[in-house]
Amino acid sequence: MIQAFVCTHCPLAFEIGWYSYWDFDGDTGRLVCVRCGTMHRLDFLKKSASDSDETGTTTYLALPEPVRKVSRVFKETILGDRFQDYEWPFGEDDWLTVSTWSGRRPFTELSCNRCGEHGTLISLGLPKTSEGLWPVFRQHDNTYLCPLCSNPIGMIYDETIN
Ligand SMILES: [Zn+2]
Ligand SMILES: [Zn+2]
After folding, report:
1. Residues flanking ion ligand 1, Cβ below 5 Å
2. Ligand at shortest distance from the CA of 37
3. CA separation for the pair 70, 94 (Å, rounded)
4. What ligand is nearest to the CA atom of residue 8?
């Protein structure tokens, strides 16, 4: 599940979450640094589904800087139906490879590649709020506060991929 949020105050836009690949044996996660707002990514790939996690490889990636906006665009299906979509101002080539390692490591051990801070990366599920809610910037009334500036933010999508 990948969720995307936009703060119009800082401003800041980010994706956070996790999904399994349908065409590879692995998964990818989106993390965000709560100090500088930079998105990070953990890609995990195994050679085959029967391999254990220890034989897999993790690639740790980061965007060069925080994303400040995401564009709303209208697209058309081949049948002419218009639908709304979001277009991020970065592509696959913009992700910097920070490091790679064998197996898995808890992301809580990682430092932010941009600001260098340790322990500031959050995932969709970790850490939780004191009430057990996630992500950690969710309020008990199901609104969200920006993890950087604490102003109210909106969720623009919540996608369950496979
Ligand atoms: Zn903000
Ligand atoms: Zn940072």
Report:
1. 7, 9-10, 12, 146, 148-149
2. 2
3. 15
4. 1
Q: What token pair was written down for 68?
A: 């400040």
Question: Residue holding tokens 């965000």?
Answer: 32
CA 12 to the chain's CA centroid: 13
d(CA 161, CA 9): 29
The reply to whether the predicted model has a pTM over 0.70 is yes
Peptide bond into 147 cis (omega under 30): no
CA 35 – CA 120 distance, rounded (Å): 6
In the block, which residue shows the tokens 């920006």?
Answer: 146
Query: Chunked in runs of 10, what are the mean pLDDT values of the chain (162 residues)?
Result: 96 95 85 98 88 87 97 91 92 97 94 97 96 95 96 94 57
Distance 103 CA to ligand 2 centre (A): 24
Distance in angstroms between the alpha carbons of the first and the last residue of the chain: 9
Among all bound ligands, the one having the nearest atom to the CA of 64 is 2
DSSP string, 99-117: EEEES---GGGPBPTTT--
Q: Which two tokens stand for residue 150?
A: 């604490």
Query: Tokens 């993390």, residue?
Result: 31
CB 155 within 8 Å of CB 144: yes
